[in-house]
Specification:
Layout lengths: L1 H12 L3 H8 L3 H16 L3 H14 L6 H16 L4 H19 L2 H15 L4 H15 L5 H16 L5 H21 L4 H15 L5 H15 L3 H13 L6 H13 L3 H13 L3 H14 L3 H17 L3 H14 L4 H14 L6 H17 L7 H11 L6 H6 L8 E4 L5 E4 L5
Antiparallel strand pairs: 1-2
Helix pairs in contact: 2-3, 3-4, 4-5, 5-6, 6-7, 7-8, 7-9, 8-9, 9-10, 9-11, 10-11, 10-13, 12-13, 13-14, 14-15, 15-16, 15-17, 16-17, 17-18, 17-19, 18-19, 19-20, 20-21
């Protein structure tokens, strides 16, 4: 280490006085000596010993190396921890480090983010100063804003609301802008996406106390009207509504529709179909499920959307179409228990459409046939068994079978009504 140091020292001095003075100050030898010393101690994580030579370089040759400002905050933060009685002085030094770094090495936006976050961390009473610093940082950095700076800025806003300095509506407006930055980095900054995700999670937990569906609509409806061609804005608004469970409103429906128009996908079409079911707009729901089926290339996912379409038919009491659609799912995904469960439930739902009590009870034979098929699928085995036990109780009795054609258990039988399906006679007793 010493040999290397002497070599660096000699090499540096060989450049001449003008170079030495411009970068290493008046006493270039002492500057290089202290710079090397603090770096060696820093690498060893001996921050206590690094403090003195670091301070000398910071005060006497501030342009010597960017490491003065990259390593300095870590050294000072360790001193805050080791010497809490001197916290105020060390925090002042920390702020000065950031100011001097900007002066000599630029990168103002990024450095201000660090400065504001640390000011809030070590002195929450200065939240207004931190807010101003962080607002400047984010204005300069935009989508390049550091995750820590974004979170710290939101925290200052949170404190300001609690102190009645700004309104909740003002917080929500800025929340939208911050989430835009986060969403951008979650998509495009793979290297640091985990940090932005953590920031998003923390902010989302805090925002819950301020935000409700009515406020979201009041704030964002006018913006949606103006910016409904902005894909990023619409997507962000959709995520806000979804995260806050504001999914039963007309506003959510309009945002969802617009997002699907801008970014059509099988998933978005499926979601719209489900919304339309809740709205009892069954024909529209079926159209959206058809879109999902048409767009989707994966056969398993297409089968899933077919079951969703079948459910729309079932709820609208179009049982024949529901059965036909659900059976299409079984063609795409063989031996799929979920499809058999769905078909069984459709028959159960439609049993009441038969004219006589005996006809109604025979529909349960067909339903149980399909529940039985679902037993072979581990994912539906338990549900299928429960359904079999439940609906077997609704089978006709031996007496009812006798008076309706002298039927015996095990006989073949075609259930009429709307079903028109062959099955086997069974009794409940």
């Amino acid at each position: 280490m010493i040999k290397n140091f002497v070599f660096i020292l000699i090499l540096t001095l060989s450049y001449g006085d003008s170079f030495s003075q411009s970068k290493y100050g008046v006493d270039s030898v002492k500057c290089i000596t202290n710079l090397s010393l603090f770096r060696e101690y820093y690498k060893q994580k001996n921050y206590m010993e690094a403090l003195s030579p670091w301070r000398w370089t910071f005060q006497n040759c501030p342009k010597a190396s960017g490491n003065i400002y990259k390593n300095g905050p870590i050294i000072i933060k360790s001193m805050i921890k080791e010497r809490p009685e001197q916290k105020k002085e060390y925090v002042d030094t920390l702020m000065l480090i950031y100011d001097q770094r900007i002066e000599y090495f630029g990168n103002e936006g990024y450095v201000l983010g660090r400065k504001g976050a640390d000011l809030l961390r070590y002195d929450k009473s200065k939240f207004l100063d931190a807010n101003e610093i962080l607002a400047r940082s984010i204005a300069l950095q935009k989508n390049s804003s550091d995750a820590g700076a974004v979170l710290a800025y939101f925290n200052t806003l949170d404190i300001m609301v609690k102190n009645e300095i700004i309104s909740e509506d003002s917080l929500l407006n800025r929340y939208s802008a911050l989430m835009s930055i986060i969403d951008y980095n979650l998509k495009k900054n793979d290297k640091k996406s985990k940090f932005y995700q953590k920031t998003s999670d923390v902010i989302d937990k805090k925002i819950v106390s301020y935000i409700d569906c009515g406020k979201i609509e009041n704030i964002f409806q006018p913006k949606f009207t103006i910016n409904n061609n902005d894909t990023d804005f619409v997507n962000r608004l959709y995520n806000i509504l979804s995260k806050q469970n504001c999914t039963d409103t007309e506003f959510h429906f309009q945002v969802s529709k617009r997002l699907h128009e801008l970014l059509p996908s099988s998933s978005s079409a499926s979601k719209l179909g489900k919304i339309c079911i809740k709205r009892k707009e069954f024909n529209q729901a079926i159209e959206y499920f058809d879109m999902a089926i048409e767009i989707e290339e994966d056969s398993d996912k297409r089968a899933k959307y077919l079951l969703e379409k079948a459910d729309a038919y079932r709820i609208s009491k179009n049982y024949s179409s529901a059965i036909l659609t659900a059976k299409q799912a079984t063609d795409l995904k063989k031996n799929w228990g979920e499809a058999f469960i769905t078909i069984g439930n459709i028959y159960v739902a439609g049993a009441g459409n038969c004219s006589s009590d005996f006809e109604k009870s025979t529909v349960y034979w067909v339903a149980v046939d399909y529940f039985t098929k679902a037993l072979s699928d581990e994912l539906t085995n338990e549900r299928a068994r429960k359904s079999i036990n439940t609906y077997s109780k609704y089978f006709p009795t031996k007496e009812e079978c006798f008076f309706n054609g002298s039927l015996q258990s095990g006989d073949s039988y075609t259930v009429e009504c709307w079903v028109n399906k062959g099955t086997t006679v069974r009794t409940s007793d």
